[in-house]
Amino acid sequence: RLQGYWSVFYGSCGTTYSSFFWDNIPGDFDLPGAWDMQHLKDLILSRPMRDYVPDQSLITSDTMGSDDVGNYNSPNWGAVDRRVATRAANKAWAMFYTTQGKAIGVRRSRLADGAMSAYWYNPRNGLWNDDMGSESSSKNAAQAGIATGSGASDMTFDPPGDTGPDNDWVLVLE
Questions:
Q1: Strand 155-157 to strand 52-54: parallel, antiparallel, or no bridges (unpaired)?
Q2: pTM of the shown model
Q3: Cβ neighbours of residue 120 closer than 8 Å, sequence gap 6 or more
Q4: Which of 40, 98, 145, 173 is the most exposed place for a label (fewest CB within 10 A)?
């Protein structure tokens, strides 16, 4: 999942999924990662593609917890800690992906003036997590009335669950 979200949030027009073995491509379509790409597609296509702007400046601390980024053969590949951001061209919404479920510091002053709501999207199952910890196919704000724009201070958002591999989340502010 993390490569897919990194690619799209950094500005690519899409991503593909397959194992490293060409002779197994038909079998790859039933692997869990293949189904995870459906959730990525659903999230990304919920907004016009032409509106996406990669913007790491929205994140107060862009950390990488491992030197193994890009080394797919490393035993630490799944433990990579990275946060990436994308936003609307008019700054009316933003999305943030955390690979390890660690808190995301957001520079709210770099978003459009007004108030937004925060939503947590689970990339493992395509469901939304509300402020009570329940998951649903319907979006329910985890937090509403968040001031954004000039004068708004930085704010930290803590995703559901414990930090660690396989607890990746997408924060959506709109």
A1: unpaired
A2: 0.82
A3: 128, 129, 142, 159, 160, 169, 170, 171, 172
A4: 145
How far apart, in Å, are the Cα atoms of 41 and each of 45, 63, 139?
A: 6, 25, 17
Question: What are the pLDDT digits (tens) for 30-49?
Answer: 666 677 888 888 998 899 88
CA dihedral 60, 64, 69, 75 (to 10 degrees): -150
- Pairing status of strand 83-88 against strand 52-54: antiparallel
- The residues pairing with 170 across neighbouring beta strands, listed in sequence order, are 97, 121
Q: Where are the beta strands (DSSP E) in the chain?
A: 52-54, 83-88, 94-98, 104-106, 114-122, 127-129, 135-136, 143-148, 155-157, 169-173
Distance CA 111, CA 117 (A): 12
d(CA 167, CA 99): 7
123, HSE (Cβ side, Cα atoms, 13 Å): 30
> Which of 119-123, 128-132, 134-138, 141-145 is least confident?
128-132
Cα angle, residue 14 at apex, residues 109 and 164 outer, rounded to 5°: 65
- Among 39-43, 103-107, 113-117, where is mean pLDDT lowest? 39-43
